[in-house]
């Protein structure tokens, strides 16, 4: 009491809350300006703002006539930024740094505790602030000067480079197709720094008009700082009860609030859940749990909940499967949504999940391959369906995760009958959509449902494999003896016709038969060591061919080589053998070329058809195979490019790598005509299409 008497109340002031400029009033904090940074009249000022980000840029004119202003420095800055040319895009049109830009940043994240106050005639009028912004000088003009400097350097360097060097700087581009974005990936991308920067850059600037202190518009706007009505009805914010006023004076500390564990935004506590209506409680529980017995649902809803009301609500968001409630598909996949895995729309996902649920009404077990074959959905979507309501079992399939609830079925036969009617309607729709067969409609036998999965130990597997190997070995031994007897009979018949047998001139020890399966084993179509098992009279005997067969083989081989080199004028031996393998794969069984063609026969035939071997001087450290180092070319094809092709082959016989301008000059000298770049490219493409 003594302290109160020593500090008497001198004056009582009425406080009013002005709301006219609510969410429009900002406080700007300018930096302390040095004496050399004085500004002209405020009519030279321009401003712009991004309202969502509360970001402001102000442009103020600098007093260049002030004695503290360094004119030479201002001219140097303007020259560095704009260069010698001045146009509309120039930052400083007067060739002098005559303005300064200020950029804002938020001084406080929570400005609800701050207000602008005006005192007039014994009344204090408060207007809440919408933002407090600190203005700092912006030096973007320096970035612009650096960018122009780099452009000039790049232009100088680019002028010295030649066209040939530019052609060597070819880079490989990898094309990738984006996969469907999952919800988790989308959330991470939205919360990333790059995405936020992009969103901020996309917001457009709103240009503002500046009015001076003594302008009539400023005088008019300043009147909004005063409360427009002094009635108590419009200032109810200042009328609080003692407890509310005490809470405003002493709010709970931030540390106590931070100590409480923060739950995810999509998770509700049981206390929060029970504040919602009953239908919303059931929908949230079923959406999160997905499969639940009725007894568990009643225990989660708390004591005193009416079971009849729960049954009425649960039928709106769930279906009965084996006495348990499973959430409906349209609750998990709302309209206008899609699969995070494949991008399939929600309607298709709902049909596929309904098929899985219907299968579990018929059987305890479901096979994922069968579901995928019927629904035509990707494996990830089908796996999600099954994980919602079942558990994977080894060597069996997917089993419904909850046991059959006989208690609920006995207590509520009317609900069970109503659900059976719903499933009959769903089954009819599924039959039309998926064209279900009888094997999909009929449930499996009860014995198969109750059977336990067969478990086989590792030792049993090994014993079974050994027994299978012994059985197969016996069959293979019988077939081998049979083939051996047939070979002996063929040898005896062949000896009686010795005069008709001709021996190859090339020695077997020097050249091996060509491996027709070196490049692509799948091209043989049943070939065994390059020969057809169904081959008959043209089979070689001990590596030798019948007399009339060699001429037919030579003719067929020559026809193949001639046609191949007329299409592709230059080929390596490796590429020629690959094309020959493809040719063999297209021939019928028993063809003469299946008699066995060696590398030497193939190379001799290439030389006989008018081709020449080009001795390209490859480097010694090359990683190419010997067949890839042997290059053959058709010397005369009878077309207009024969002379050009011969010149090119002579060039490449001296060096394996030649610049394009050298080729162009050599062709012009030898052929007596000036060829441009397009014509040279055409000659190279026609001559070396198989190598480049």
From TrEMBL:
Source organism superkingdom: Eukaryota
Pfam families recorded: RPC5, RPC5_C
One GO cellular component term noted in the UniProt record for this chain: RNA polymerase III complex
Residue segments, region Disordered: 146-169
Segments of skewed composition (Basic and acidic residues): 146-155
DNA-directed RNA polymerase III subunit RPC5 C-terminal domain location: 444-690
InterPro entries named among the record's database cross-references: RNA_pol_III_Rpc5 (IPR006886), RPC5_C (IPR045576)
GO biological process: tRNA transcription by RNA polymerase III
Protein name according to UniProt: RPC5 polymerase
Organism per entry: Eulacestoma nigropectus (wattled ploughbill)
């Amino acid at each position: 009491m003594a302290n109160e008497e020593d500090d008497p109340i001198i004056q009582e002031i009425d406080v009013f809350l002005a709301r006219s400029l609510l969410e429009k009033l900002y406080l700007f904090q300018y930096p302390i300006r040095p004496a050399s940074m004085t500004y002209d009249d405020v009519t030279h000022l321009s401003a712009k703002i991004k309202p969502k980000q509360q970001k402001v840029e102000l442009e103020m004119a600098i007093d260049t006539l002030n004695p503290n202003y360094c004119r030479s420095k201002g001219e140097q800055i303007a020259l560095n930024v704009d260069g010698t040319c001045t146009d509309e895009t120039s930052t400083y049109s007067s060739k002098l740094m005559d303005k300064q830009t200020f950029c804002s940043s938020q001084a406080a994240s929570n400005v609800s505790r701050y207000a602008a106050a005006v005192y007039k005639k014994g009344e204090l009028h408060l207007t809440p602030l919408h933002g407090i912004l600190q203005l700092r000088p912006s030096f973007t003009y320096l970035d612009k000067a650096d960018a122009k400097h780099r452009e000039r350097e790049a232009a100088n360097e680019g002028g010295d480079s030649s066209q040939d060097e530019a052609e060597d700087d070819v880079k490989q581009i990898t094309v990738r197709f984006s996969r469907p974005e999952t919800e988790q990936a989308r959330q991470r991308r939205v919360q990333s720094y790059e995405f936020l920067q992009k969103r901020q850059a996309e917001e457009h600037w709103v240009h503002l008009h500046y009015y001076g202190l003594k302008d009539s518009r400023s005088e008019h706007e300043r009147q909004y700082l005063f409360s427009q009505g002094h009635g108590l009805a419009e200032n109810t914010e200042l009328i609080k009860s003692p407890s509310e006023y005490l809470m405003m004076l002493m709010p709970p500390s931030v540390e106590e609030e931070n100590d409480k564990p923060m739950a995810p935004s999509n998770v509700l506590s049981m206390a929060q859940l029970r504040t919602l209506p009953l239908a919303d409680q059931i929908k949230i529980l079923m959406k999160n749990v997905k499969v639940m017995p009725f007894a568990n649902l009643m225990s989660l809803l708390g004591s005193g909940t009416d079971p009849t009301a729960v049954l009425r609500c649960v039928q709106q968001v769930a279906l009965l499967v084996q006495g348990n409630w499973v959430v409906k598909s349209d609750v998990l996949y709302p309209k206008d949504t899609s699969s995070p895995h494949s991008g399939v729309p929600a309607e298709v996902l709902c049909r596929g999940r309904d098929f899985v649920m219907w299968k579990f009404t018929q059987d305890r077990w479901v096979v994922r391959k069968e579901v995928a074959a019927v629904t035509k959905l990707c494996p990830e979507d089908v796996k999600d369906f099954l994980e919602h309501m079942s558990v994977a079992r080894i060597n069996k399939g997917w089993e419904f995760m909850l046991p059959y609830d006989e208690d609920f079925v006995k207590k509520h036969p009317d609900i069970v009958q109503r659900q059976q009617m719903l499933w009959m309607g769903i089954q009819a729709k599924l039959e039309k959509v998926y064209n279900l067969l009888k094997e999909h409609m009929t449930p499996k036998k009860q014995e198969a449902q109750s059977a336990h999965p067969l478990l086989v130990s590792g030792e049993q597997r090994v014993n079974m494999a050994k027994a299978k190997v012994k059985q197969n070995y016996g069959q293979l031994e019988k077939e081998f003896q049979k083939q051996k007897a047939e070979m002996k009979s063929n040898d005896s018949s062949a000896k009686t016709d010795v005069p008709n047998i001709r021996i190859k001139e090339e020695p077997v020890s020097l050249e091996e038969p060509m491996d027709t399966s070196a490049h692509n084993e799948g091209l043989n179509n049943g070939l065994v060591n390059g020969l057809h098992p169904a081959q008959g009279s043209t089979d070689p005997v001990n590596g030798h061919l019948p007399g009339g067969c060699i001429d037919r083989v030579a003719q067929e081989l020559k026809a193949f080589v001639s046609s191949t080199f007329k299409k592709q004028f230059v080929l390596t031996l490796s590429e020629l053998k690959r094309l020959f393998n493809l040719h063999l794969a297209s021939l019928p069984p028993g063809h003469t070329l299946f008699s066995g063609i060696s590398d030497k026969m193939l190379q001799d035939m290439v030389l006989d058809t008018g081709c020449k071997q080009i001795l390209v001087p490859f480097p010694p450290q090359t990683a190419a195979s010997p067949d890839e180092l042997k290059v053959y070319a058709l010397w005369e094809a009878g077309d207009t490019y024969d002379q050009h092709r011969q010149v090119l082959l002579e060039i490449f016989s001296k060096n394996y790598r030649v610049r394009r301008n050298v080729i162009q000059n050599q062709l012009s000298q030898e052929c007596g005509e000036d060829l441009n770049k397009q014509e040279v490219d055409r000659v190279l493409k026609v001559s070396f299409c198989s190598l480049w």
